[in-house]
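input
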Amino acid sequence: MNLDKNLRIYRERAGYATAKEFADALDVPYNTYTAYENQKREPKLEMLIKIADLLNVSLDDLLGRTPADEDERLKKEINDLLNPNELKNLRVVINNIDEKNIYCSFLGLKDNLMKIKNKVMLEVNKQNKQWGDESELTPHQWLGLIQEEVGEIAQSVNETYLPNKTKSQLGGKENIQAEIYQAAALLIRFSERIEGE
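output
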């Protein structure tokens, strides 16, 4: 059971910067709550439910429980999201699972397309880790972020291919690709936000 680690991770993710702040929200003494985080005491079931509800996580996630068939379920879910025409020879390899992300590789797709998809998904994970879900942003704010990214792609292209190139950092094919991956990741995250409404 990883309750002590998960408590801290989910508490901080939910916006409770300190154990004291979360103990107050739970209406328990600070010493009681810190004993949970330090493995000196185990909360009773009703307290676990209260904690999970406040942190907006399942009890399984809070306790670090993963069903035995979870890897197979995740592989199936990932495969269902992909284009069916690409699935004939596809294998999904789960490289790592942490408390928030699943890192995987897809084998069997055309190499170049596969590399692009993997780079975009790495950028999605990076942005999610850096900025969170940004659920408070309005669609117009998302559009502004997307326009900014497209502008950076245009700047990279101009600085790479136009005569009289400036001495900016955005030129070069590698930077064009990096900007495209950032824009694609932002579009995926915006799509997820719209789907979640």
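quick obs: Strands lie at 91-97, 102-107.
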